[in-house]
Amino acid sequence: MKKTIGISFTTTNLSNYWSWFTPEDLQNVVLIDLSFQKNNVDDLYKCDGFILTGGVDIHPALYGGAKDYENRPAEFQVERDYFEEKIFTYSQDRRKPLLGLCRGLQLVNVLQRGRLIQDLASNNLQHRSEDNVDREHAVTVENDTLLHRVTAMRSGTVNSAHHQVADPNAIGDNLRVNAYSYPGKEIIEGLEFDDKTNKAFMLCVQWHPERIRDRQNPFAINIKNRFLEAVTE
């Protein structure tokens, strides 16, 4: 029987998450839409794994952030924040695999009682997309992490389209950083559980593996394949 992956609905580039999965992948899994707009909470219970997608900023009230900040969106999607909190909570209660991509990483950090840097400002030259084209930059991967085991890489190139990041001074409970932008360690690029005891697969990255141009990039294909293994095993 095929396993089911729930993809959280986003108003930004949703089709990329669906097209990431090839016909070969879909021989073993089916994809369903988990939408805050439809509020289809009951569909959570059909899922064997989850992807928290990118999109609009998380409402700052969820992490005690400033109400006004540079480059804040004209509108937040509070309903989405709370709907995806249900996805994360269910995934943890039932030990279901989860990928957090871009905003998804930020949400996991917030839900684990972490905080965000609300705008990267002058540090954002290599991260913010321009004319809907992703930036590309180097990352370094920390030793002895799930991300290192998955990618078998200590460094590489990823894409980028964001202006917020997890605050390195306020990482959520039981989370550890598994990757940073290069050079330096100012910008967090990945999170995972520190103590993985009794935890399902959970990997969060700040980039967008679903739309990296080089489909054979280990920071895209290896992440997808390991997630699929976790869902179907």
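The above is record 1. Record 2 follows with the same two-line structure.
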Amino acid sequence: MQIIFASKNKGKIHEMKEILSDFDIISSDEAGVKEDVEEDGKTFEENALKKARYVAQKTGLWSMADDSGLCIEALNNEPGIYTARWAGEGASGDDLVQHTLKKMKEIPEEKRQAFFESDVALVSLEGKEYIFKGRVNGKIAEKPSGEALPKLPYDVLFIPKGYSKTFAEMTSEEKNQISHRGLAFQKLKEFLENL
């Protein structure tokens, strides 16, 4: 069974292929779907479903998509669904990190709680839809640390609860076991294994 992953984000594709290494998964680009789907949903789930439905409709194959983001409690859970565009359209990873640090400048250490959420949508050949959610709590560091994968800039700032290092300082195996995306894809993996 082949599954198309509706993403062009190389960091996400890398993580997902590691977690779901037992399955035949290709990116939407590899499947010939070059268009970007506008992420205009009000939630991670809506955006993930929109992308997965679009790729399923274009390819006639099982399709999946993830929408995820960072929610900072002291900032009313911003950036949320705007995580990739928080510093403006076309902002670089470094711009996003610097923008976050600027917004957090006056926030004391004990109030820097945040969480990452990932919603993964899966659409079957018959059009059945499934959602798998993952969430990890943590806090925002006062300065960047580690080296983030492409298009995962916030990893240099996010310290998961119970750890003293950022996602970017962890091995991919460590991160995939506890991350929001790792947890959501793990649920998806169990679902696929029981089909």
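Helices lie at 10-19, 44-59, 93-103, 172-178, 180-193.
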